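Side project, low priority. Logging it here so it doesn't get lost.
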Amino acid sequence: MDTSRIEQLGLRLEQGPTGTLATLELAQDAALTNPVTRQSISTITFQLEHDRLIPAAPPAVVGLTPVILGAVATREDISLLLTGSFDDYLFHIERRSAQLHTMGLHPDLDPETLVLSTELEAGPLALTLVADRHGQFQVGQVRRDGQALGGLPPFRFELFDFRDQASLATYLSALIEERLARPPSAAVGPGGRVRYEEIAQAFGSQALVPPRSPLEVLVHVRVNGENYRFAAGRVMGRTFRGLLAGAKGKVWSDRFELDGFPGIVQLVAGLLKVPSEAVQIVGPDSPQE
């Protein structure tokens, strides 16, 4: 990257511990305002990465959308893009905070970083849910009996997919408990995993699940040697929230009605665009290829 163009745009360059930094001084009428402290933010530092300016300081702007240098011609262009991204995030904060209140959860906005978070009790687990700069939530921390559990993925999800905190807690706890219960599989004995076949044998096929009771399904699938997990959590009644994930992350996530669900094999085949014969449902104890 020719840094001379960065300087022509009116940014000051310096070397930082992680690479080249570019600092922009915003005009007085273009300065950002922290909605919590009401303090003005007029100096923005970017990390220069190839053809992108990535907001790096102060903490209130970290995570905002990077500025593509090819899309700007003047210093004012950078300022407008940054201001637009910041205003979008403030909108997400307001909207998500209102939604958390509706679900009976308390929104917590950090005054320095402007990170929106909340605490959720999910059975024996205590979860910290954190929103990114685009308003999407993820599980930031998981605790059991006051002890933080490590080695877990962030478990991203769309808050609007859940009507109340009970359905959200049920969905997240099922995904987290499933991950925590992974190999060594021998450690999961009686009292651990339960197969639906065992439930049907114990209670019979005519047993009913009450309309508001939580219900979770986890199915392991193999397609052309690749392993996937299908998870479904009941939202309410006959409405479910489904997820298909592989080694590279989420493949699909959406709500569906039980009456219109085509079946796991047909769903996976359609999503991955393979014939149904290529989709194999396997047990959780089957060897991973």
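Brief comment: Confidence is low (pLDDT under 50) at residues 184-190.
Revisit when time allows.
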